[in-house]
């Protein structure tokens, strides 16, 4: 059998940390509202030196080091982002050049918003299975602070910047389960990054309602696609949009005893970066249980969702 597995994780966050108290000097909000409605306590905000590309490079480099893989052995790099700066050269091309990847490595940008990492993992896994690549790097990188309206308290308190990455390699056992993915037509316009200048806006209430009523079934479908039951899952790594979405999802999936990624508290919503960032930070701290099935589930703009079970 030719499958794939995760060989390592990496991440990068800007050094500037913005607290809820600082935010309440910018807009009419307060620490208590933000904590009780979202769980967020801090977020990292990009400085002039932090771009989607620079953070993607750092996260990918850290993941390759963690995996013990040489850049010259990488056959594919996928960068998922809602905030890719240029259409050409695109982010993955710049990452491939900066890391010194082989000229035969495929550089691919994708934008399926907050589920971008899970889509990237699915595409990389399939490329490895069919033999197009032996090693792939999948990155989520975002500078949401650049597209948020800093006078709009309903969105600026939610977002953060950062990047996370995973290295996937060929394996004789399939450690990345089949993806379960799709979209929600009635929420097609619920998350927008549009206008000139581009601005992020969302129908927070509609997304919240979908997330606490419908998302659990899609997450269950990813577990079933892997031929597993929820009892087999040791780690839940869901899109870090809001702790008030993560906790009901965990409860609906009977996850009280699981290791749950809750990096939203420290990093806010970093869209495509949120799942690999949270996993990589837990991995680096030595907190992430090893060798146990981990349920990834992302959802957001498009309106797209995707999930799969990976064993780290
Ligand atoms: N500080 C203080 N008060 C605020 C703030 C703030 N920062 N923001 C809004 N309010 C006020 C509103 O004006 C409103 O006041 P009113 O009742 O007097 O009108 C009240 O708080 C309630 O506002 P709601 O928007 O209804 O608050 P809600 O409880 O729905 O929480 C939130 C909003 C956090 C956005 C929630 O709806 C949510 O998390 N939705 C899901 C978002 C999501 O998952 N997006 C994922 C895809 S997009 C992406 O990830 C990039």
Write up what this structure looks like.
About 35% of the residues lie in helices and about 25% in strands. The two termini are about 20 Å apart. It folds into two domains: about 5-170, 3-Layer(aba) Sandwich (Peroxisomal Thiolase, Chain A, domain 1), CATH 3.40.47.10; about 180-310, Thiolase/Chalcone synthase (Peroxisomal Thiolase, Chain A, domain 1). The strands form four sheets. Strands 1-7-6-4-5 form a five-stranded mixed sheet, sandwiched between helices. It has a five-stranded mixed sheet with strand order 8-14-13-11-12, sandwiched between helices. It has about 300 residues and is an alpha/beta fold. The protein is globular. The chain contains eleven helices and 14 strands.
Shape: globular
CATH class of the largest domain: Alpha Beta
Assembly type = single chain
State the strand order across the main sheet: 1-7-6-4-5
Could you name the CATH homologous superfamily of the largest domain? Thiolase/Chalcone synthase
Mean pLDDT score: 97
List segments where confidence is low: pLDDT < 50 over at least 5 consecutive residues: none
- What ligand species are in this complex? acetyl coenzyme *A
Strand % is 25-35%
The number of strands is: 14
Biggest beta sheet summary:
5 strands, mixed
Number of helices: 11
Q: State the domain count.
A: 2
Structural class: alpha/beta
Fraction of helical residues: 25-40%
Radius of gyration: 18 Å
EC number: 2.3.1.180
Organism: Curtobacterium pusillum
GO molecular function: beta-ketoacyl-acyl-carrier-protein synthase III activity
Domain Beta-ketoacyl-[acyl-carrier-protein] synthase III C-terminal: 224-311
